[in-house]
Amino acid sequence: MSDLTEQEIKEAADSLVGVRIWFIIEIIFYSIGTLTLLILSIVIPIIVARSGSNTAGIVGSLAGLLIGFIVVAVLLILFIISLLAISKRKRNSYQFMMAMLIISMFWVPVGTIVGAILLARINNELTKKYLNYI
Description:
- The protein has helices at residues 6-15, 17-51, 55-88, 93-104, 110-122, 125-130.
- Helix content is 82%, strand content 0%.
- It is an all-alpha fold.
- The mean pLDDT is 87.
- The relative contact order is 0.17.
- The longest helix has 35 residues, at 17-51.
- The protein has one domain.
- The chain is elongated.
C-alpha cells in the first residue's frame, strides 16, 4: 500500500465517487438490458408457436437475442468486477477502470461526455497512488 496521509486518501476517494456512481448506473442499465433480452428470448418462441409462423425466422431472431444477451451480460459482469476492484483498491483496478470508462464512452453522447469528464478527473498521481497503481 502507498503511504498516503488521511487528507490525500480522502481526496483520492472523493475523486472516485463519480466513477463509482457512473459504474452503478451502467450496472443498472445493463441489468435491465440483460433481463429484457432474457424475457424476449422466452416470450418470442411462445408467440411464434401460438401463431404457427415460420420457424426459420424465429431461429434467426433468437440467435440475435442470444448474441445480444451474451454481450450485455459480459459487459454487466465486467462493470461489476471493475466496481469491486476499485472498492478493494486492487493494483490493476486503475487500468481496468480506464478500459471500462473507454467502453462506456461508446454511449453517444451521454457516455462520451461523462467518460471524458471522469477520465480527466481520475488521471492524477493521487488517484494512482490510492489505487496502488504507482
